[in-house]
Amino acid sequence: MIRSSILAAGLLAGASTASVAAEPAPLPPPFEGYYQPQGVDEIGLWREDDESERRLAASPLVIQDEKLSGYLKEVLCRAVGDDRCGTARIYVMREPTFNATMSHNGTMRVFSGLLLRMRNEAELAAVLGHEFGHFESRHGLNRFKAARNGTDLLAWGVLLASMSPSYDARRTYESLEISVYGNLYRYGRDHEREADLLGLGYLNRSTLAPQAASNVWQNLMGEMEASAVARGLKKPKFNAIAFTASHPPTSERATYLAALAAPEGAGRDYGAERYQEALSAWLPVFLEDQIKLNDFGGSEYIIDNLAKDGWTAQLWHARGELYRTRGNQRDLVNAVEFYSNAIALDDSLAAAHRGLGLSLFKTGERTRAQRELARYLELAPNADDAKMIGMMLPKEPFQ
Description:
Radius of gyration: 26 Å
Helix content: 55-70%
Oligomer: single chain
């Protein structure tokens, strides 16, 4: 815990002087090989993880795409090195939120929502490296031991307090309780900072641009702010921290990751084209899942962010879906424009014709709507909703 506290202080000091000069994150220590659990507690934890991984492998939430999971493994190896990445097994889960985890036994779970939010290989490598940093430093094991020691202390404390009739004893126990929980949360935040530092150290020595690590958190703040504004809520305070926060403030992470990235890495490869190619088959699915979250501001921010590398038919279609499903009349007018842009880029995109036809129906352009829906059925005659869409068409063929 002391080591982590010193580390946090150093990171914060580096962040505050980012504009002056900050030493890049140090290179990771030499790889010591795959760690074997020792003692009853560790062996028990590893066994639980092994059983959890067996269930995970058969879970319908896991995307069974060998090509996709193989690509993620390549990115991890590019970030942390071939020797280290051999200890990890990656599972991509169809879950549209931003998250990734790594267990004691080397099981890495990557959510599809995280993949949707990355713009290039370097950003993905930053997140995978962070999770691997937790694994290599055995943070999960250390937190387990700290939590057990803390709860043991509280158990003895409440027993002693119950044996004392004085009010001061009870008040002392309550102070102890706050102190123990506060230290456990702070301990977790220090682990996150340490994993950030390790992940950046991997990137600093890799062939990818380490500056991408800060971009991940900058984009996340942009999404959260857009989501709050669209909901009519106050803008989040990215520099504030709650007593029970499990992670450091987002703005703090973005700042020190930018300050500690190796300056010579700015000109390195970001791998944007490789990333887009690897995700191309799944991007429409991940966009559809995101839109179903009913988070208009956040979803629009993600689509606009992806479009910074150029608007594609899929992105225009996703934006059309976002506006059509919100369903205001003014949204439908915008949706018609977005679907039309998608079709102009790719007339064979059946879903764009469907969305355009349904939007035109609701804006009163019935004849044009039926032509678009007919085109949809022409391109996708076996679609699940083919019968329903067919009922919206005239019985006589178009002239």
